[in-house]
Structures are given as structure tokens and as C-alpha cells.
Specification:
Layout lengths: L2 E8 L2 E8 L7 E5 L2 H7 L3 E7 L8 E2 L4 H6 L16 H4 L4 H10 L1 E2 L6 H4 L2 H13 L7 E3 L2 H9 L8 E2 L2 E2 L1 H13 L4 H5 L8 H18 L3 E10 L5 E7 L18 H11 L8 E6 L7 E6 L9 H11 L7 E4 L3 H13 L3 E5 L5 H9 L3 E4 L4 H15 L2 E2 L6 H17 L5 E5 L4 H10 L5 E7 L4 H8 L12 H4 L5 H8 L5 E5 L1 H15 L5 H11 L10 E6 L6 H8 L1
Parallel strand pairs: 1-4, 4-7, 5-6, 13-21, 14-15, 14-17, 15-16, 18-19, 18-21, 19-20
Antiparallel strand pairs: 1-2, 2-3, 8-9, 10-11, 12-13
Helix pairs in contact: 7-10, 8-10, 11-12, 11-16, 12-13, 12-16, 13-14, 16-17, 17-20, 21-22
Length: 570
């Protein structure tokens, strides 16, 4: 027997709405003083959705944790129902004044703790301690917010508040009960007196959490942010809802692959006519002094100068774009692609770039009509600035690699490549954040084609993740840092690549610049460092093909300052 549960805090501890997955019986409601008791009594619980914060950052920028900032704009006028949870040191304080002092010291702008929020701290600590003590639970416990769940069921913010000045609002309760009824929750359980120690609205919220749990189990879960962040103790930080029928993902079928073929096929149909079919240059055996049969896939000839255009268009065409438009953080290429795609769709785009972005790439973003914002010294700073903007405006964030829509869009390159070169043995693919290689590897999964990643020696986020068996932070110092300079590939890229990428070859910066010179000298292709990195692996023998091996080399980016290229070629 397997069970799932939706859980909410209540006066007596916790109220749980529990559903037997194997039977036809309706959900049952139960109150327990400690959450651990529920797990002891029901060891077959496979998934718990709980209305309580999980994961605590050590510092807070803005109005609470990232998930709260992202969710508030989705709730209309009742944004205040999402409390501003402070940083870990404040939540761990047992005294209210001490909690306020620590919250002020660990937040920017400085924020005190509300009395209402402080009353939640014991339950937050209870979950935190439970998950830290038993890491095996972490993948089965999801943070939810009932008002976000109800807004998802409704397709927009609800009309009536659940409470008015602390008193139950009958119109708000009726509105939510009707939504739960439409989700298959029996009216009897909603109309019955709640278990002792729980209020009627607590029971309703637990049932809403149960609805989200059911969708997550079916593969329709939707986290904010996507993908979930992790705190310093490895706990996930995200508020979950689900993809409703009004806003479906590209593919909601259950699959053992994070990005299945069907999702890439759908992306290919979606972006047809928007992204170019880029050519393959067949060089034959003996090119570059190699015994392999070599060809170059010239994705550097794509709109906006890089493969990123594929993922940008797939996001814009697959997802609903709000009035605030789209936003992205980028070292340059992703921003140019999003700006290009947004202009073609008549959508406003705001692009956040770090100070290290080349002037040529910033100029390209502006040329495509987007607003450019310098978001800090490094890419991570620009991403943080972008996330704050999204939380404040409700704009659609288009992530350069950590999103299935992006990866599926980049996967269309692998699909196209296979159609042009059906007999390939191996492909060499440059890696930055990993969205490109994830898409290509997802497409070639299950075929004879070996996918080999290429990273600069000074920027090796994917290789580090594969070695550590999970995403990990790396330092970045490379001539290709503006496009291949991600510090962490993130969990989604890792999950795609861990079983589909053969290995990663590391190349020195000298080999990358040598490849740039070779591509210009021999083929008159002006290619940026990241776009030339895959060829650099062949030139410096970081990857050594076997005699006769059919090797495809991806040339993936052309956004280079021509004066710098002139300096390289002399």
C-alpha cells in the first residue's frame, strides 16, 4: 500500500490529508502533534506536500526567500499571505528580540520578523531538523502554498479571501471548496467537521496540498524557482504547484528521462521557421592531421549568432508570456537570442548582463531591441538581479540552461544534426551551463552516438558535477568565461548528463584561441572562444579519435569582437 499526503500546520500540530494510491477510498484527514509521528505510523508514505517553508538561506536579499518573491506576484491582491521568511540564523533563534536582531543582520534591505511569522518558526525548525537528520526524505517532501495551489486550479488569483481580519470568510471557503471538488475531492470530506485540533481552513489547505502532491507524483510538478535552489545544508528551496490544463508544459508524460525525445520533437515543430537549419561542412579523413572522418556543424550561422536562439524561441512559443514580457540573465549569447526571439514575437525583453560581458554581445542585445541592465560583476550577480526583477514585475524568466524548455530547444540541434549526418560515431560539444550538451545528449540517448563535452581547464562545472555525482561550485577563469563560465550546472543539467554524456575533455585557453585562428584562416569563420572550444579539443588532442571514426565537431557561437579576432590572427 502506497500513500501520499498534503499537510498544513494547525493548532494541535499538523493536519494531514492522506490518500491511498492503490485504492478507491476518499482521502482521510488526521491530526498529529509531530510530523515525524505521521512517518512512523505510515512508513509507506511516498510523497508529502507541506505548507511550511523548507530550506533556509544564510542571507536574504529582498523580501524573503527567493520562492516567496517569485510567488507573490501570482496571487493578486493577497500577496501578503506569503510571509517573508528570514535567514536561517533568525529562524533558529528562540527569542523574538534575538530573531529580529539576527534578521536585521542577515538581510538586505534590513528586515525585522513579524510576530505572525515568528509563531511559525518552531514548525519550520521541526521540518528542517527532520530533513537534515534523514537525507533520504528530501526527495519526497515538497513545500507548497495553498493560495498558489488554488490560484493554479482557478487559472488566476481567486476573487474572495479565505479570511477577513482573522475570521473565516464563507464566500472564500465556498470558492476554494468548488475548486477542490473539480479536482476530485469529495464534498463530504470538505463539509465534515475537521479533526480535533484543526480549523476548517487548515483542513482545506491540507486538501489543496494533497492535490498538488497528486500532480507532482504524475510528473506535472512546477517549482518556483525552476530548478529548485539548495541551502547550505542541501535542503531544497522551492514552492511547488503544478502545470494546469490552462498552461501545460511541453510534455507531461511520465518518463525515466528528464527531457524525453517527445519533448524535443515537440520543440522542433514549434520552432520550425523561426530558427535556421544550419549547415554541416564535411572535411573528410585527414583534416587537422587526424585519421578521423571529420565534419563541422556550423551552428555559428544561427540567428543571433548562436544555438541559444533555439531554446529562446521554444520558451516563448511554449509558455504564456505575461504583459511584463520576458527577462533573462546572460553573459551575452543567451541574451542576444532572447532579444532576437522576443523582437520577432513582439514581446518586451529585459536582459541582465554581468560586467564581464563583451561589448560586442551587449551591442547585439541592444540592436535586437531589448533593454540591457548591468547586473553585477559576474554571471551569478546578473542572475540574482534578474530573479529580483521577475519577482517584482511578473515577467517570464527564460533560463539559459536550467529549464526543460531551454534544453528541449537546444535538443533540436541534435535532432537536426542526426538527420544531416546519420552515421556519426561521436560529437564534440562545448559546455558552459550545460543546456546545449543536455539537449544534444538527450536526443542521442539510446543511440550509438557518443556525446563528449568540452570545457576550458579553468571552467569545468560539468566535469566537476560528474566527478562529485552531483552539482558543485567551481571557480571560473578562462578566455571563454563569457559564454562557458557557469559556476554550477545545476540539478536538471546533471540529471540529464550523468547517464548520457560519455565524458568531458578539458582544453587549455591556448587551444581555444588556436581553434579560433584555424577557423578564420582556413574557413573564414569568425568564431568566439566558446564557439571554438570543441575544435580546440581536437587540435590539442584532449580528445583523440580512433582511425576512421566519424567525428562531428560543433562550432556554436559567432558573437566575437572582430578587433580581438584581428589581434589573434595577426
Amino acid at each position: 500500500m502506497a500513500w501520499i499526503a498534503g499537510v498544513d500546520g494547525c493548532k494541535a500540530g499538523w493536519v494531514a490529508a492522506i490518500l491511498d494510491l492503490a485504492g478507491q477510498a476518499p482521502p482521510i484527514l488526521r491530526v498529529v502533534p509531530r510530523l515525524a509521528e505521521l512517518l512512523v505510523d505510515m512508513p509507506s508514505l511516498t510523497l508529502i506536500a507541506i505548507d511550511m517553508p523548507i530550506g533556509l538561506p544564510d542571507r536574504i536579499d529582498g523580501s524573503g526567500r527567493g520562492p516567496e518573491q517569485l510567488v507573490r506576484p501570482l496571487l493578486g491582491q493577497r500577496q501578503s499571505s506569503v510571509f517573508s521568511i528570514p535567514a536561517r540564523p533568525a529562524v533558529e533563534a528562540l527569542d523574538y528580540r534575538e530573531a529580529c536582531r539576527l534578521a536585521l543582520a542577515t538581510s538586505q534591505p534590513p528586515r525585522k520578523v513579524s510576530k505572525q511569522g515568528f509563531h511559525l518558526f518552531p514548525r519550520i525548525r521541526e521540518i528542517d531538523q527532520m530533513l537534515r537528520a534523514d537525507p533520504a526524505l528530501r526527495d519526497g517532501v515538497f513545500e507548497v502554498h495553498p493560495e498558489l495551489a488554488f490560484a493554479t486550479m482557478h487559472g488566476e488569483p481567486l476573487t474572495h479571501p479565505k479570511k477577513i481580519r482573522g475570521t473565516i470568510n464563507p464566500a472564500g471557503m465556498a470558492e476554494r471548496q468548488a475548486l477542490l471538488l473539480a479536482q476530485g475531492i469529495p464534498s463530504d470530506i470538505m463539509q465534515a467537521r475537521p479533526p480535533k485540533g484543526a480549523a476548517a481552513d487548515d483542513a482545506l489547505d491540507a486538501l489543496a496540498a494533497l492535490v498538488v502532491a497528486r500532480h507532482i507524483l504524475a510528473g506535472r510538478g512546477r517549482p518556483f524557482p525552476d530548478p529548485p535552489e539548495r541551502d547550505s545544508h542541501g535542503l531544497p528551496i522551492a514552492i511547488w504547484t503544478y502545470w494546469s490544463d490552462r498552461s501545460p508544459p511541453q510534455d507531461t508524460a511520465m518518463t525515466d528521462r528528464p527531457v524525453p525525445h517527445a519533448m524535443i520533437e515537440a520543440a522542433a515543430k514549434r520552432i520550425a521557421g523561426h530558427a535556421r537549419v544550419t549547415p554541416v561542412m564535411r572535411l573528410g579523413t585527414g583534416a587537422f592531421g587526424s585519421d578521423a572522418d571529420i565534419s563541422l556543424k556550423l551552428e555559428c550561422l544561427q540567428h543571433a549568432g548562436s544555438f541559444k536562439t533555439r531554446g529562446a524561441f521554444n520558451n516563448l512559443l511554449a509558455l504564456d508570456v505575461p504583459a511584463a514580457g520576458v527577462a533573462a540573465a546572460s553573459g551575452g549569447n543567451h541574451g542576444a537570442a532572447v532579444a532576437f526571439a522576443a523582437r520577432s514575437r513582439g514581446v518586451k525583453a529585459t536582459i541582465f548582463v554581468p560586467e564581464i560581458s563583451p561589448a560586442a554581445k551587449i551591442e547585439a542585445i541592444r540592436r535586437f531591441g531589448a533593454e540591457v541592465v548591468i547586473g553585477g560583476a559576474q554571471y551569478d550577480d546578473a542572475q540574482a538581479a534578474c530573479d529580483r526583477f521577475v519577482a517584482q514585475t511578473g515577467a517570464l524568466k527564460i533560463h539559459p540552461f536550467a529549464a526543460k524548455e531551454t534544453i528541449a530547444g537546444q535538443g533540436t540541434l541534435g535532432r537536426e544534426w542526426q538527420g544531416q549526418e546519420p552515421d556519426l560515431d561521436t560529437v564534440l560539444v562545448a559546455v558552459g551551463g550545460g543546456g546545449l550538451i543536455s539537449g544534444i545528449a538527450a536526443w542521442f540517448a539510446g543511440t550509438k552516438v557518443k556525446v563528449v563535452g568540452v570545457e576550458p581547464e579553468g571552467s569545468r562545472a560539468l566535469q566537476a558535477a560528474l566527478e562529485a555525482k552531483g552539482p558543485t561550485e567551481v571557480k571560473v577563469a578562462s578566455v571563454a568565461a563569457d559564454s562557458l563560465g557557469a559556476r554550477n550546472v545545476g540539478p536538471l543539467v546533471y540529471e540529464v548528463c550523468k547517464d548520457t554524456v560519455d565524458h568531458v575533455a578539458l582544453v587549455p585557453d591556448a587551444a581555444i584561441t588556436q581553434a579560433q585562428v584555424t577557423l578564420w584562416r582556413d574557413f573564414r569563420l569568425a568564431v568566439e572562444p566558446g564557439g571554438a572550444a570543441a575544435l580546440g579539443a581536437l587540435l590539442c588532442s584532449a580528445y583523440k579519435p580512433a582511425p576512421g571514426e566519424r567525428l562531428g565537431v560543433l562550432v556554436c557561437g559567432a558573437n566575437i569582437d572582430l578587433t580581438k579576432l584581428a589581434e589573434l590572427v595577426g
